[in-house]
Amino acid sequence: MSASANTPAIRFDSVSKAFGSKKILSEVSFEIARGEIVFVLGKSGMGKSVTLKHIIGVMKPDAGRVFVEGKDLSTLDSRGLSGVRRRCGMVFQQPALLDSLTVYENVAFGLKSPEFRTARAASGQKELTENEIQTRVVEVLELVKLDSSILNLNPPQISYGMQKRVSLARTLAPGPSHLLFDEPTTGLDPITTQAVNKLIRELSDKLKVTSVVVSHDMACALQIADRVLVLDQARILVWGTIPEIRQSKEPLIQDFLSEALEFESQSGQEVHR
Ligand SMILES: Nc1ncnc2c1ncn2[C@@H]1O[C@H](COP(=O)(O)OP(=O)(O)OP(=O)(O)O)[C@@H](O)[C@H]1O
Ligand SMILES: [Mg+2]
């Protein structure tokens, strides 16, 4: 895409969305810069997942516009939209791997898909050989701290935490520019949660990807986010850096912060930023 380096990775311009009479987003505007880690927080049902779905264009706003790399999604045809989806790697809460395939086949899946091959052809790149696919699979497994000894295992033969990593590796394989996580640590124990957080930070540093992380977890946000966006009652309640969030007098933010500090004192984890 031809957007300049200063073009925001993601921009919402006065986006509104309702289901029936229930307003989920009401004239919501924000910009996320390339390479930023943004946490989207809010109580259950406040439109966090709906926000992610607007970024990948599977939901359309009732009013307002969503831009990815400067492209107004409402102006794109299905080919344009699938291009955007390819640049936005979505990491779901559940690993959603295919149990009948090996780890290798699961991670290679996206590299063999017709969409990926067509996109490569369209940008004048040659089709990946099986050797190149193999190299890429090993490379992305290394990025998520897994070694190639598990390549021939099936998902049920590895732990849940490893399955989540494999699922992340599968998302990374085609080389997305922006990673969208929907509750990556919900349901994980504190140690695995820490490991996943660290991984998100490391991927951001190494690959310079933009990361949008939907979460309930202020403690995680305080540790790794550059900025935090809190949705409440269809609006942005707070949107700012960690120091700005810490200074917020909003009761909901105070609740989130005191929960995070409680987590810190119980787990001995440092909530340092
Ligand atoms: N396709 C849909 N049709 C009708 N209502 C929907 C649809 N998708 C979401 N909603 C409603 O929109 C609201 C926001 O949903 P969303 O999934 O974004 O919440 P959330 O903030 O992600 O919550 P949680 O933390 O529980 O995942 C909810 O009330 C949900 O029921
Ligand atoms: Mg959700």
Fold blueprint:
Blueprint: E1 10-19, E2 22-32, E3 37-41, H1 48-55, E4 63-68, E5 71-72, H2 78-87, E6 88-91, H3 103-112, H4 114-122, H5 130-143, H6 160-172, E7 178-182, H7 190-207, E8 210-215, H8 218-224, E9 227-232, E10 235-241, H9 242-247, H10 251-267
Parallel strand pairs: 3-8, 3-9, 6-7, 7-8
Antiparallel strand pairs: 1-2, 1-4, 4-5, 9-10
Helix pairs in contact: 3-5, 3-6, 5-6, 8-10
Bound molecules: adenosine-5'-triphosphate and magnesium ion.
Offer a concise description of the structure.
The chain has 273 residues and is of the alpha/beta class.
Describe the 3D structure.
The relative contact order is 0.16. The protein is globular. The two termini are 34 Å apart. Helices cover 41% and strands 23% of the residues. It has a six-stranded mixed sheet with strand order 6-7-8-3-9-10, sandwiched between helices. It contains ten helices and ten strands. The mean pLDDT is 91. Strand 1 and strand 2 form a beta hairpin. By secondary structure, the chain is an alpha/beta fold. It binds adenosine-5'-triphosphate (ATP) and magnesium ion. Magnesium ion (MG) binds next to helix 1.
